[in-house]
Design goal:
about 250 residues, mainly alpha, SP0561-like, 2 domains, 12 helices, about 75% helix, about 0% strand, elongated
Length: about 250
């Protein structure tokens, strides 16, 4: 019951990540900072019990590197995990971050943050557009190619289609592109001076910077899973498929 009777601002003060949980249920804490969770749930016909459960789950959740967890996973399951992560990024993380950026009124902020937040309101939507384009390209090109290799290893792809795909691209090309694109949030990090805030910084800006940092860490973990696990496994798979094609060519 303690969670329900706290104001939204108090809840988010205890754990900045609570803001994203509330946003998922359509509640922007910075628009109703003094309203209690119980009251806003009653007014909006939401289940306070369900939201309270999600808040508690978020509080107890431990961050474990998916790289160590998924070392023994097959390629198709790693691709499925990464696709799901992309959906979370685009459907939950980016919309929430955009709502924080757009919800901040630069003129009402202390002087040290006015210009930075005003710049973020221009820079972050552009970053989001580029990021979505990057994710879409990755799904259509890299994931589809690796899935084709995985299917080919089980003999489910015609030889002509394999020759065509192997002639157009390679895992090495994707790995090289990744090494260039690895630091997606460098400009945002530099703009916010590495997400540094003073103790008296307004709650909304503290939450925004904390969520930007958390998102950058999520992207780094995501890239690590792609670079250190998926692409390594895919390179071995590609070698196997090329060897199978070579054997077929000798038989013909």
């Amino acid at each position: 019951m303690e969670i329900r009777t706290k104001s939204l601002a108090q809840l988010v003060e205890t754990n900045y990540a609570f803001g994203s949980v509330l946003h998922f249920f359509g509640i922007d804490f910075f628009k109703h900072p003094e309203e209690t969770l119980e009251r806003i749930c009653h007014r909006r016909h939401l289940s306070a019990t369900i939201i309270e459960r999600e808040l508690q789950a978020r509080q107890q959740r431990e961050r474990v590197s998916p790289v160590s967890l998924m070392v023994g996973y097959p390629v198709d399951m790693i691709v499925a995990h990464l696709r799901q992560a992309h959906r979370v990024f685009m459907r939950r993380r980016l919309p929430y971050l955009l709502s924080l950026v757009q919800g901040a009124a630069p003129a009402s902020l202390p002087a040290p943050y006015r210009e930075t937040v005003a710049d973020l309101q221009i820079a972050f939507p552009l970053f989001a557009e580029d990021f979505i384009r990057h994710v879409q390209n990755e799904e259509v090109e890299m994931f589809e190619y690796i899935t084709l290799l995985d299917d080919a290893a089980y003999g489910h792809v015609p030889s002509w289609q394999l020759y065509q795909a192997l002639g157009k691209t390679s895992v090495a090309q994707f790995a090289q592109a990744h090494s260039v694109e690895d630091d997606d949030m460098r400009k945002i990090r530099e703009l916010t001076q590495h997400y540094q805030v003073a103790a008296d910084c307004p709650l909304l800006v503290r939450v925004l910077y904390a969520e930007l940092l958390a998102f950058e860490e999520e992207l780094q973990t995501h890239a690590e899973l792609e670079d250190r696990l998926l692409l390594v496994k895919a390179a071995k798979l590609e070698q196997k498929v090329r060897a199978l094609l070579g054997q077929q060519a000798k038989l013909n």
